[in-house]
Amino acid sequence: MHPPSLSLLSGLRPLKPRGPPLSLHVPFHRAQPHPLHSCSRPITTSLKRPYPPPSNPPVTTNRGPTSDEDTQTDFSTLDVLGNSPAPTTSIDACLSHGFHLDNGIKIGGGSGCLLIAGEAFGWKPWEADGGPRDKQGRRSMQNGKGQWEVGQKAWGLLDVVWPKPDLLILGLGPRILPISPETRRFINELGIRVDVQDTRNAAAQFNLLATERGTSEVAAALIPLGWKEPSG
User: Fold this and answer.
1) Is the peptide bond before 163 cis (omega within 30 degrees of 0)?
2) Gap between the Cα atoms of 108 and 45, Å rounded
C-alpha cells in the first residue's frame, strides 16, 4: 500500500469563503386563523346517532291458529290453589258495621267477628272487662300510649279452643295500631303468633292463608271498618 501523494493532500484542504457568510435566518410571521376555522368555537368529536322512528301499533291481535304442540305451557295448571275450595268462613265483604261471609252469614250491628276452626262468632272486644276506659268511663281499645289493648276476657274463646291455631290475624279497623305488650304477651302465651293489619288487608290475608293452610291453623279477629274510638 502506497501513502497518498502531496498533490492529493493539498486538494483536501478546506476552501476559504470568498464573501460574507450566508445568513440562514428566515423571518417568522404568525399565521392568522381563518374566520371559518376560528379556535373560539369548541371542537366536538361526538356524532349524534339518529333515533329509530317509533313503531306503529299492531293492526290486529290475532296470532294465527292455535298450535297443537304438546310442549305449550298450560298456565292454569300452575295455580296450586285453583282447585282448592275456599273455606266457608272466608270474608266476602268488609262493611262499616259488620261482615259478609262466604257461607251467606251476615254479621251486623257494629259487631266484629272471630273466625276460629271453621266457625264464625260475633266479637265485641270493647265490651270485655279489664280494658282501658276513656275520660267519660266508656270502654276504649286504645290505651294512653296509643297502643291497642283489650282485656283478657276478649280472648276467652282462644283460651278454651283445642287444637289452637298457629296464627291469629288481627284486623284493627280502618288503620293499624301497635298492640300493647300485655295483649301480645297474653296471646303468645297461648302458643299463638299474632299478625297485625288493618281490617281489609287482614281479611284478604285470612282468605289466602286459610285456603292454603286450613282454618285449623289460621284464625282471624276483625274489628269493623266503621269503629271509632270514644272521644275524650
Assistant:
1) yes
2) 76
Q: What is the DSSP string of 130-180?
A: TS-B-TTS-B-SB-TTS-B---GGGGHHHHH-SSPPSEEEEE-SSS--PBP
Distance CA 37, CA 42 (A): 10
Nearest CA to 198 among 171, 221, 170?
Answer: 171
C-alpha cell at 33: 386563523
DSSP 13: S
Task: Measure CA of the first residue to CA of the last residue in the chain; give whole Å.
Answer: 136
- 202, 169 in Cβ contact below 8 A? yes
Cell 296470532 -> residue: 63
Ordered per-residue pLDDT tens for the chain, 232 residues = 566 666 665 655 555 555 555 555 555 555 555 555 555 555 555 556 666 677 777 777 777 777 777 766 666 666 655 666 778 889 999 999 999 998 899 999 999 999 999 999 999 998 877 666 666 555 788 888 889 998 888 998 998 999 999 999 999 999 999 999 999 999 999 999 999 999 999 999 999 999 988 899 999 999 999 988 776 5
Interatomic CA distance for residues 216 and 210, integer angstroms: 8
**Residue 1 CB: number of other CB atoms within 10 A?**
2
